[in-house]
Design goal:
249 residues, Rossmann fold, alpha/beta, seven-stranded parallel β-sheet
Length: 249
C-alpha cells in the first residue's frame, strides 16, 4: 500500500516542474490529486502524464474566485482534503532601480497573497491531522540583486509556515516549508527571452552549488512527499532547504 492510499491532495502549480512531479508521485502511491495552473493546455498535458487519480482545475491563485472554484470542485468530487501543496509561484529578474509597482504587486500577489489564501480557503475541507507544504525558496535567506521582491515574498512564505504551525496545532495539522535552491524547471526559460540567455542563467546558478549541478523536479518532489506524508510526522514549522548545499556550505 502506498503512503498516500485514500488521501486527497491539492497541488497548485501542478502542471509542470515540482508540482507536476509531486502530483505524479502521489497518484502513483494511491492518492488522488487536484492540480491547478493558469494554462489549460499545460494542465491537459499534465493530466495525461499523471494518468490516473487526477482532476485539473484551471485557475490563478492570485484570483480568489478561482480558488473558490477549485475548492468547490474538491468539495463536490471528494468532500474533504488531506494535503495542500502550495506550489504555484512566479519570478522575474528585475533590479531595484527598474522595478515597477506592477512587478512588485505580481510578486506578492502570487507568491505571498496567493499562497496565504490557497491555505486559508482549504481549511474548511482540510481534515484534522492533515499536512500543508509551502514551496518557498532559498532566496529568502540570500541576497540576490535581481530578485528583491520575489525573495521578500518567499520570506513571507517561510514565515507563514511558522505562524500556521502554531495556529493549526490544535487540529494536528502540520505546516512545513520546502525551500528549493536552483532547480532545472521551465520557470528558468520563462524568465529570459532566449535559449542562450536561459543557458547562461543555468551556468550562473550552478556556479554557486557545491554539488556542481542544478536539482531536478523529481528530487524536489521526493522532499515534498516527505513533508506531505507521515514520514515527517514529527516535523512542523520547519524550512527544509534542498539546494545542493548552496546556502549551507
Amino acid at each position: 500500500m502506498g503512503r498516500f492510499e485514500g488521501k486527497i491532495a491539492v497541488i497548485t502549480g501542478g502542471s509542470s516542474g515540482i508540482g507536476l512531479a509531486s502530483a505524479q508521485k502521489i497518484a502513483d502511491e494511491g492518492g488522488f490529486v487536484f492540480i491547478t495552473g493558469r494554462r489549460q493546455a499545460e494542465l491537459d498535458k499534465a493530466v495525461g502524464l499523471i494518468g490516473k487519480n487526477v482532476t485539473a482545475v484551471q485557475g490563478d491563485i492570485a484570483n480568489l474566485d478561482d480558488l473558490d472554484r477549485l475548492y468547490g470542485t474538491v468539495k463536490a468530487e471528494k468532500g474533504a482534503l488531506d494535503i495542500v501543496i502550495a506550489n504555484a509561484g512566479c519570478s522575474s529578474l528585475v533590479r531595484l532601480a527598474d522595478a515597477t509597482p506592477a512587478h512588485f504587486d505580481e510578486m506578492f500577489n502570487v507568491n505571498a497573497r496567493g499562497t496565504f489564501f490557497t491555505v486559508q480557503k482549504a481549511l474548511p475541507l482540510l481534515r484534522d491531522g492533515g499536512s500543508v507544504v509551502l514551496i518557498g525558496s532559498v532566496a529568502h535567506v540570500r541576497g540576490v540583486a535581481m530578485l528583491t521582491a520575489y525573495s521578500a515574498a518567499k520570506a513571507a512564505v517561510r514565515s507563514f509556515a511558522r505562524s500556521w504551525a502554531a495556529d493549526l496545532k490544535e487540529r494536528n495539522i502540520r505546516v512545513n516549508c520546502l525551500s528549493p535552491g536552483g532547480v532545472d524547471t521551465p520557470i528558468i526559460d520563462l524568465q529570459v527571452p532566449t535559449k542562450e540567455g536561459a543557458d547562461e542563467m543555468r551556468k550562473y546558478m550552478v556556479a554557486g552549488v557545491p554539488l556542481g549541478r542544478l536539482g531536478t523536479a523529481d528530487e524536489l518532489a521526493k522532499a515534498v512527499l516527505f513533508l506531505a506524508s507521515d514520514d515527517s510526522s514529527y516535523c512542523t514549522g520547519i524550512d527544509l532547504q534542498v539546494d545542493g548545499g548552496a546556502v549551507q556550505v
